[in-house]
Amino acid sequence: xKKAAARLYTFLMFLFLYAPILVLIVFSFNDTETASRTxxxxxxxxxxxxxxxxxxxxxxxxxTLIIAVAAAAASTVLGTxxxxxxxxxxxxxxxxxxNITNFPMVNPEIVTGVSMMLLxxxxxxxFGGRSLGMASIIAAHITFCLPYVILQVLPKLRQMDESLxxxxxxxxxxPVKAFFKVVLPEIMPGIVTGMxxxxxLSIDDFVISYFTSGxxxxxxxxxxxxxxxxVSPEINALSTVLFAAVMALLIVVNVRNAKARAKDKA
Length: 266
Known about the structure:
Strand content: under 5%
Order of helices and strands: HHHHHHHHHHH
Number of helices: 11
């Protein structure tokens, strides 16, 4: 009875979480000229066709991908460097740095978004330059993606045998070359996982992007602007594409983590 109740509870929980998404995906193929979510008129791909013919959506998609790639690349490099530095610290400074690192993740996004907007506006007024735009969004995304990269790389550094790096240097390998030849391959699974997480978080972000975007449109901001005017079935198609992309990246992350755990056990 306990197993049956647990399975029923799990089923109901997943049904509650994913039923709305399933309805959205199904009605993205609905052949209708209205935004109806209750009347099925037949299967059609026309909303996907209209989606990829919409210049504004394609521009928002381009901006989103540019921001996500730039933020993921920069946060991966900076996060890896920070993780190496934190791992080499002593106990008390390491604890302090970890608390500072974790703070952006527990801080409400709206607080982060408003504070970064004020910072960028102040910087523009003080030093001059352009107002909020692509650069400010990328900087904001790097900021909130950094902790996730650090938390993915740190466990790999802790699992690595420190004597490997020392042995490479004893055998005549310079420190920089020893890092790229010995340390980097050992922590590469954590780096790749952190980069994928940063890319996913950047694509998915709305609140921080909304406050730091200026006139730059990203996909989440564009979807929000569409819902304020008229709920078009193109939103269903666009949301389905986003869901599929994020789900694919999460599957890649989970598969890599499973392989890494199996390798560690072996």
